[in-house]
Amino acid sequence: MNAIDEKLQPILAEVTRRNAGEPEFHQAVHEVLESLGRVVAKHPQYLDLALIERICEPERQIIFRIPWVDDKGRVQINRGFRVQFNSALGPYKGGMRFHPSVNVGIIKFLGFEQTFKNALTGMPIGGGKGGSDFDPKGKSDGEIMRFCQSLMTELHRHLGEQTDVPAGDIGVGGREIGYMFGQYKRLNNKYEAGVFTGKALAYGGSRARTEATGYGNTYFVQAMLATKGTSFDGKTVVVSGSGNVATYTIEKVQSFGGKVVACSDSSGYVLDEAGIDLALLKEIKDVRRERISEYARRRGAGVHFIPADRGSVWDVACDVAMPSATQNELSGKDARALVKNGVIAVGEGANMPCTPEAVRIFQEAGVLFAPGKAANAGGVATSALEMQQNASRDSWTFDQTEARLATIMRGIHDTCAATAEEYGAPGDYVLGANIAGFVRVAEAMRMLGVI
Ligand code: GLU
72: CA distance to ligand 1 center in Å? Predict the structure, then answer.
């Protein structure tokens, strides 16, 4: 990791002490603090007002028991979380993650990142995140529904369209959002559509929300490539993951003339030199919920499945890498392999997928690097557009919504680039995103008094 300005070191020490055993949260705070030395040199009042300390401490953290009954009639217990991180700019906003690795530190890191990401979108949304250590893998539809209902029986009292607005994340898609919103509606006896985003079109969802994170990352990388006078056309691209973010990244990259030759899941990756067949991938992952090896089997000769213990998707040579699976999935070793193979741009579709060492390697090698809090902000930005449509009881066309998304992503790109330039680090999108996101939240908090 890079050095932190000495004035900020006590802040990191205190965050580490107060949040013991939460390495992902420490990592996310460390990465932002690395960028803030230049900000406090210019605006010392941020230190006097303890704004950084306040931003690192969530406004509220809710941890609760989720009891539910499985298909065999046995009682199961999971733990639920909602970290309401910062509401200076608007209601808490951020997804719910269902994955066995979920703990309070992971939700806190995600909520912290979300606060700056949401600020970068320019929309009136604060930052929050939630989830559970529930593992959706192998669960029946009935089990998923009973789990979602039990979770919401507790969480509903903490939500509201003006208070806290969840959405999806890993393990939470349209089906889970439907079950959670259904239970919320029942408990509140109100049709409060704007309390959830990522809803299906049938009951108040927005067109282009499903596609938005992957499309948005592709727009961001397109803008970075344009600063070097180039584009996706004819480029070889590797996308990790095969969920919602990866799927719609592949779709958009292909529409811009790029060739995506590999994607993955936790069991391994597939290498398809002819270019990923998106219709087949969607059928296997989205409809049938099968493992990715099935893609190689169905596609036939020339397409390989490489299990996770025999190699990394980042061993595949490419011009552009778009990590879209999960945190810390791309290591320093992976970054060195990508640089050796000539990668020119990296766009983080997932939250914090590159380790600090990997980010340093890309930046030192002059690779265009887009951090997740900027590059993957298209999902939450379109969530804010969904809230806007719900509030006005309107429904926009796909083209209208996608056009707004594209404008927002170009705006985020330009803000990050201009901020990096202003603070003496042209081309450093990490610094630009951290400073631009932080200043927007800090300025609002300063105006609101000691809150
Ligand atoms: N989970 C997504 C993210 O990491 C989307 C959040 C939302 O739409 O509220 O930004």
Answer: 34
